[in-house]
Structures are given as structure tokens and as C-alpha cells.
Design brief:
The complex is a heterodimer of chains A (418) and B (169).
Chain A (H helix, E strand, L loop, with lengths): L18 H6 L4 H7 L3 H11 L11 H10 L6 E6 L8 H8 L1 H15 L3 E6 L4 H16 L16 E6 L9 H8 L23 E5 H13 L1 H7 L7 E8 L5 E6 L2 E2 H6 L13 E6 L6 E2 L8 E2 L1 H6 L8 E6 L4 H15 L5 H19 L6 H15 L3 H5 L2 H9 L1 H5 L4
Parallel strand pairs in A: 1-2, 1-4, 2-3, 5-11
Antiparallel strand pairs in A: 5-6, 7-10, 8-9, 8-11
Chain B lengths: L7 H10 L7 H11 L7 H11 L3 H10 L11 E6 L2 H19 L12 E6 L11 E3 L2 E3 L4 H12 L12
Parallel strand pairs in B: 1-2
Antiparallel strand pairs in B: 1-3, 3-4
Classes of the chains: A alpha/beta (418), B alpha+beta (169).
Chain lengths: 418, 169
Amino acid sequence: MKNNLLLKRIGNMIDPTSVEEYCSTGGFAALRRAAGMEKEDILREIEAAALLGRGGAAYPMGRKWRHLYENPRYPKYIVCNADEGEPGTFKDKALLSQDPLSVIEGMLIAGYLFGSEAGFIYIRGEYRIIQQTFQRALDSAACSGYLGQDILGIKGFNYTITIVSGAGAYVCGENSALLNSIEGVTGRPRVKPPHLADVGLYKQPTLVNNVESFANVPIILSMGGDAFRAVGTEKGGGTKLVCLSGHINNRGVYEVPLGTPLEEILYAKDYGGGISTGRPLGFIHFGGQSGPIGFPEQMEGLAYSYEGMWERSLAIGSGAMVVKDDSVGLVEYLESVMEFFIHESCGKCTPCRLGTTRLYELIGQFLKGSAKQEDLPRLENMLTHITNLSACGLGQSVSVSVRSVIRHRRSEFEALTG
Amino acid sequence: MIERILTDDQKREIIYKNGGTTENILAILLELQSASPEGYVEPQTTALVARELGLTETRVYEIASYYAMLKVRPQARYVLEICNSSPCRFSKSDKVVHMLQRELGVGVGESTPDGLFALHYTPCVGTCDVGPVIKIGDVVYGSLDEEKIRNIIGHLRAGQTPVQEGGRS
């Protein structure tokens, strides 16, 4: 379908872990190209590409790479975040299981650029079977000389990648919690700053990028940063993997150039194919549980790009799009979101540990019909507190979906007050 | 299904096959747990892992009790985990819950008296394209309906591995 960049090998390989097959479709050409370039030029291509981090935070990859590059301390570590845990997100799984060598190549290019000899990939425990596939890909790369000593015959280009398993903790998708988890410390977030590019894994300078971000690196170096940016929009280059789920006909992973009309993604035959229940669209939850909720009138004529979404108080996040028809009660839906955050709060900081439970209880009051009018401002105050006082991204984003509903469907709450 | 408790040597083999360092502790504990007849990280296992990795037992227990996939109490033989995150939850996973409760005669969070089945919720397992789903061990069963559920339970009762259906996840 279309001119896929990231998904071009998905479903088209007999053995996705075979280096030979990978190379026959252009694999490792970007690594070879990078190895012949000045390091400053590699960085410039990455910066020109305007790739915003695909894990969800949309942090500019070029800025992150420049920061690490300028840190003079060694050793440096390269870490791939494959702890894909945002509900409704299953795109990294597609890359890890069906094109693992593209992720490995992206990590290798980073290893070469930063002079790092050790890469880690932290794969969520729920993907244990995929961990085995990925290990086969690593073994196959090592056998062909793409991992190990003097890679590509370049003296001193040594690099290994180690798989580390998660075990069911959403918060480990937060980069500093992930690093703690690799170190064998309980996976709770660290206090930041310092930036992980300065004090990361084992207190050394560390790069942490998402699976999809790494898989984009060979593409950027093959086509050039400017051409990559031109595929997308001014603020965010390239394509984005989106995951359609919920009340939509064609659930699955799709690759769309950034800037594609949202309506096309939802309704075109070769994408979502429309609402599956025969009812009107109710809302879309973007980017997982930590993301905002969009309503039909808000999404009219919307382009699925970073800036297009931001302009309407929405966000791309991980690329998840959980589509719900108009039969789903919004307050009931938010109660389920809070239940998720109670389960996943790590308990380290009080605003998040207690705040998630208090929010769940208060939302429950609305559903039980025992909420008073003054409870809605109280809810809004609690959202402000938990957002401003929580230490990490988990607690800070608990409020996002609730705020979307209060902003655009305040009446849903008001109708439930006595 | 392994019926007997592993010897310390067999456990050590699992520890070192997985790398044998603190970096591998989650993979080690997950594999030891799945080899345990009661599906959990037993106190003796905690002690052994601590000794082999040079950690305190408290540290290993802290890790085992922190991560949702690791269990520090005995589990039913087959733990059926129903995804209740929003992609599945408002798309028929409630029906799956009712069917399973009826079929097994227990509520969510409970085990059957014979210790064969337990019913639990799990957050998203990343198979939203084939929801509603349940996860049993490492395997996800998707696009569930009444017939598929009866099939899965029937196979498990007979001690067989159910056929995984429901597409590419």
C-alpha cells in the first residue's frame, strides 16, 4: 500500500531476521553510507529531518542527538525504548517482530556516531515471544559481522546490543524508569534534571529513543534529511505509524505521511474504512491513555501532523487512535482511564499515588449521581495539582484526557451533578 | 506444563542461560516463574536468585512484587487475563467477562476451587487490532466470541494447548 518507508518490508519478508534478505531490500546501505560520512554531517542530516520522537513525547531527535554528541564523557550508551505500553499502541511490535534489523541498523548508526560500544533494547515483558525473534535478528547480524568487533572492517567500530526484558510496568516506558529497570533497580522514574544525555545508564551519557525513531534513522540517511522532512510537514518530518483500534472497521497499523487528513485515515478504504458499529463517531483518544481526546467538531478538516494537532489542543503521542462511537459514555470512559493510572502509578511521589485514586473516586461520584455542582471545580483543581506536583510524565499526563472532556463536553459532567 | 519443582541446579541453569547478571533479572524471574508449578516466584527461588546475582533477598522480593507480570503468591494453573484497557473495554470485552464468568463459575479476581483457572484483568497487551482478547501465559487469544471461549476452556480442561486464532497478533 502506498509508498511506505517504515512498513515496506512488513509482511514481505520470508524471514525477517535474515540479514541476507534485509540487505537485498536495501538494508545496511544507510549504515555503510553513514560510515563514509563526517560525523558532523550525519548529525546535520538528523537535524534537517525534523523527526519528533515517536514514543509519544515528540522531543526533537536532532536536539537530543546533538546534546549527547557534545558531551565529552565516555562510555556512552544507546538505549532503545521498546516498552510499548500505551493502551491502543501496537506499532513498535510490528517493527520488532517483522523488521527487527531496521531497528538494529538505526541503533548501529547511533553507536557509530556517538562512539558507543554498548546498546540495549528494553522490550516489554508482554512481548516475550517477540524478544526471541529479536534475539535471532541480533544473532544473525552478529554472524554477518554487523555486530561485534571492527564492524564493516572499520578498526575500533565495536558494538553489541543486549535485550533486556520488562515485566509489566507501564511506567518503565518513562526513560529514566527504564534505565533504572535495566540496572536491576526497581523501575521507578528518577528526578530530572539531570538530562539522561548527561547522566543516564550507570550515570553515563545515554541516548534513549523509541523503536520507531530508530527505525527511521536508516531512512533519513538513505533519502537525506531534507527529503525526509518534505515527506511530512514543516514541524515534523517523515511518516507516522498509526494504530487504529476500537469501533473502526480496519483495525491495525498504518503508515501515513505526517499531514495526511485525519478523515482519510478514519474513512478511506485502505486505512480505517469507517466506524464499525453503524453509529456516528463519538470521540477519538489519541496517543494512549496519557493523550487528549478529540471530538468530531474539533477534528473537522484536521491534518494529522504535529502542529495541526497541537493547534487544536490535540497530540499525536504514540500514534494510537482509539476510536469510539457515540454510545460510549464519556465520564464512564474517563473512570476507566483513571483505573488504568491507579494500577500503573509507581507510588514514588504522593500527588500521583494518591491523586489518581482521589480522581477515580470523584469521577465515580458523578457516575453514582452523588456529585454536587461544586465538585466540578474541585475536580479541575485536583487535575491542576496532580499535573503540577507529580515528578514524572505519568502523573503529569493523568489529567490530559479529563481536561479534554471538561473543555469540550462540560455538560456531560454537569448533567451528572445534583 | 512442568509439574515438579525445579532443583537448584536447574534454576541456576535458567539464571545463567539468561545472562546471569542484574540486568537480566526480569527475564530470569519471568522464566523461573513460568517453570514454577504454581506460577510464582517462590521464596526459595528469591533466595537463590539473590545469592547468584549478589543481591539481597529484600531487593529481589521488591522487584518481584513491583512488576505486574511477576507474582509472589501461588497462582492457578491457567491464569486468564482479560484486557480491560479502553480499546478492548468498550468494544465487547464486557461480554467476554460475562461469558468467562459463566463458563468458569467465578468472578474476576477469583480462582476455581480446583485451582485450575483464575480470572484476572490486565492492562493493554498490545493486541488492540484483534480485541477483545485474553492472555494466557505468553499467548494472546483474540477476536473472541462465545464459541472460541468455550473452545479455549475445553482444550485447557483436557490438558491441551488451545489453537491460537484471531489474526496476526
